[in-house]
Amino acid sequence: MPDDLITATLTRTATADSDGAYELPVYPFVEPAELKGKLGRHPIVIVGAGLVGLTAACDFALRGIPAVVIDEDDSVGVRGFSSRGICYAQKSLEIFRRLGIYERIAAKGVQWSVGRTFAGSDEVYSFDLKKMRTHDVSLQPPFINLQQFFLEWYLVDRIYELGTVELRWKNKLADLKASDDHVRLFVDTPAGRYETQAQWLIDASGSHSIVPRLLGVDAHESKVFDRWCISDVRFGHVPPKERWTWIEAPFNENRAVWQHLMADDVWRLDDQMAPDADPEATARPGVVSDRLRRQFGPDVKYELVWVGPYAYRSRCLNAFRRQRVLFIGDAAHVMSPFGARGGNSGIQDADNLVWKLALVLEGRAPDRLLDSFDAERRYAAHQNIRITDRTTRFLSPPTPTERRAREAVLSLAREYAFARAFVNTGRLSTPTKYEQSPLAVGSGGGGHMQNVALELPDGSRGDLVGLLQFADHALLGLIFGEIDAIDAPQLEALEERYPVRFFCVRSDEGSTSAFPTVIDADGQLAAQLGSSGTDLALVRPDLHLAGLLDDASVGEIEHAVRTVLGIER
Amino acid sequence: MMKTDLTLKDPDAFYEAWLDAQRGLSDEQSAQLNARLVLLLANQVGDDRVLAECMAAAARPFSSRRSAA
Hints:
The radius of gyration of chain A is 25 Å and the shape is globular. Chain A is of the alpha/beta class.
């Protein structure tokens, strides 16, 4: 048994008879300077030290920007009744690689390759990801399963290691007053209430955030409603390490059930409940135990790690930016858990926001750049909500007609490969392509660049994320074509004026060039850009492609750089 | 030959559009819509053998009961 797994009673679990629960780290409350009479104005205050708030905080720490994080709790992970993520998709893993915690995630987390889908007592179909052809070129896998609190734990460790960012535990936001150029915050702590100010406020305090209401930011809510109950358990006898999904589970009144593996041999069982079920009743140990016996047989031996009933309704704020306040993660959007799009899209919110806010704070980009955060991430939230609502519609058909359509799909899927494509048990989170982004330049932009292997200019074996770090998180100007000898000094002048670094991309070491050279030996970087023969690719610090520029003059390249920085519209 | 591998580019979008087309209809109207849809699609396929295979595949869950009766 791993040494960080301590079997003890978890007092934060309200309902479980938790023999197998985790003991989570507790962080100290430190009296903030404001309570000692110092009224500061912090460049950035982040509300909420959950997965998304900590991702943003860690990114600021990496850039040496002093942010302050306030959180009402003093630990990571479970608090009360809330759903928690277990699956981290490739883009998130690439972001964590950049933040420096990927190795820990990969060492602790688990991957599965065999998935089986059932309806009634029949297997509808199964698949093995290892046998499926993918176009994956990233150094990170398509996903890793891991309890969310481990990620939060690793992020906290990393933030303490980097310094710069101050984590304030047991600090609860009570009220705020927003104005044009700052936000006043009123924060409750065990040592009393204090006032502080933020140049920029990031709200990452989750679906129950008070900030949108205080600022009068409205939300659009969908009619979709669904109720589930999570039981995280450790079995005496380990089931096969596969993902099993029941669309109609006979042991759950023909409603859906998910069976997923996480770290430390903990299984997540997620049972769809009747819409009118009493959440507290569904989570009672006796009721959970009955459910497990119906699924695994009367003699099943297990330890209950955590139980959490939850319900959701898709919801999206009508603005992710209001003056100096920015909304990320569940504070901005809530969606069903299918495809792990909630947590993963929140991580991408942070990734999208931090480089922009860092440049604005440094005075290298106008604050208009932050409007592109609203445009891009609200578009992403709408896409994700649409995709997860489709899954909900498949799993809870709202009318007899839709139930008949699903029956047709399931009966055909048993026999024919094509019909399996309609079986919708969730579509795993993928990075959103920013169609019609205000930052798009040239052609073909908006999509995400996978983290391919590259040889870096210092000759070391690295990857695209490593190149971004080498470039100190600037925009990457990747030159595939030849550079005119006259243009080179002018491009160097652009590097002086703007946060952009140019690199020549070559497929072998033979050729020399005016700029530091990156070796793309397998041609995977070039292949991701689609068309061959591109002269210059402008890549954003969140590794989305801003666009391809063919046969561009230095003036056109400068205009493109200024567009990506929000200077030009 | 009836194709059994996926040919649609975005099956989720088709499924959603198909359900949306039936939203708010009565059972009878929905059945009528689907009958019309079958005829329209049959004309797109335009191949008697393929259509016969598709009909046989669609009828399979009900064929044993019919022969027993």
